Amino acid sequence: MKILNQRFQINYQYPVYFTKHLFHLDNPDLRNFFGDHATAPILRKALVVLDEGMVLHHPHLKNEIARYLQSIPCITPVEPFIVLPGGEAVKNEEGYFKEIVTAIDHCGIDRHSYVIGIGGGSLLDLTGYAAALAHRGIRHIRVPTTVLSQNDSGVGVKNGVNFLRKKNFLGTFSPPLAVFNDLDFLETLDDRNWRSGMAEAVKVALIKDKAFFDWLETHAGALVQRDMAAMEQLVYRCAALHLQHIASGDPFESGSSRPLDFGHWSAHKLEQLTGFSLFHGEAVAIGIALDTLYSQHIGWLTESEAGRILSLLKKLQFDLYHPLLEDAALLDGLTEFREHLGGELTIMLLQSIGQGLNTHEMDHHVIGECMRALKESACLKMS
Ligand code: NAD
Questions:
Q1: For 158-181, what is the mean pLDDT?
Q2: How many CB atoms sit inside 10 A of residue 315's CB?
Q3: Taking the CB of residue 381, how many other CB atoms lie within 10 A of it?
Q4: Mutate to test the pocket of ligand 1, among 52, 91, 148, 241 (most ligand atoms within 8 A of CB)
Q5: Cα 283 to Cα 261: distance, rounded to the nearest angstrom
């Protein structure tokens, strides 16, 4: 027998900028980034993919971006820009994926060019996926424009689309070249999307950072009142925790554990069962509530800790019950969660506020009891 052992390491690093007015001509951030990155004396193309729902609120943005990119000596923006619908629909229909890769082909976007995605987490997931597959990987830059994408999805290494009616069934681990979080975009979010993104902040605080949880409790009122200074802190801290986690553990999730997906096994299934009428963050808030009650039920969390968590979610104005929680298919979410990574079922629960702990079994009867408790609490609220 002969064996050749292959071994090499790849170092990844990428900056996450926190800025304002990214495409104003006097903002140097993106220009300086390209200046540092695109050093060889060749012109590099940039294909821009925009979220239509965001563009509607920023009608001058396309012109601003074109003017800004044209002002960078080494960059040629490819026009017209691609504008695709925002929201989960863009991850559900294959046609949008084809539109991006076809443009990559027609416009001659090669591996020294850039694909720049500007929009919410859904648009960025699709754009990153298309960029990762075309030519086996084109450099992509993300400009997240929602709370959720700035504090979580846009700063990480994953992308993906839905397939076979399963959430994120197709996707890759492909770190971006850089991320530019521009706080100004958040001003135009509707209240639902403003709120939705905060669920991921509660999630990461619960599994990693008690002080951040305390901070969220103190600032819940300001956050609901759309206080920008409070949101700026939330986004920064939450993004930092996600980045630290990715760097410290298993960035490409080769094990069976998905620690950042606390509350997500039911959330992903609920999103799908509701035909995505429930937003990702809204479903995550319900998933957090469910797994919080479960953690209390098995004696890991105290009643007072569980009460604080549910109370924070309510202060942030999340509904913590949905009738489809009781759909028998919800429990398939556990199987799909396990199948996504393979190996043993591994679900993150809470040992205390700020500290997650994995379990390898979930009792369906106990899950049912926790669902009923959420329903009763929702009924009480309505009566
Ligand atoms: P979204 O991308 O679905 O966008 C929600 C809505 O906001 C859309 O209608 C969009 O057009 C609109 N919008 C975007 N920016 C706007 C702005 N500045 N002003 C006004 N409207 C704007 O929602 P999301 O919460 O950003 O992302 C959810 C997606 O992220 C889900 O598909 C989820 O699975 C995914 N996600 C991915 C990861 C990851 O690691 N890749 C992590 C968490 C979540």
A1: 95
A2: 15
A3: 11
A4: 148
A5: 12
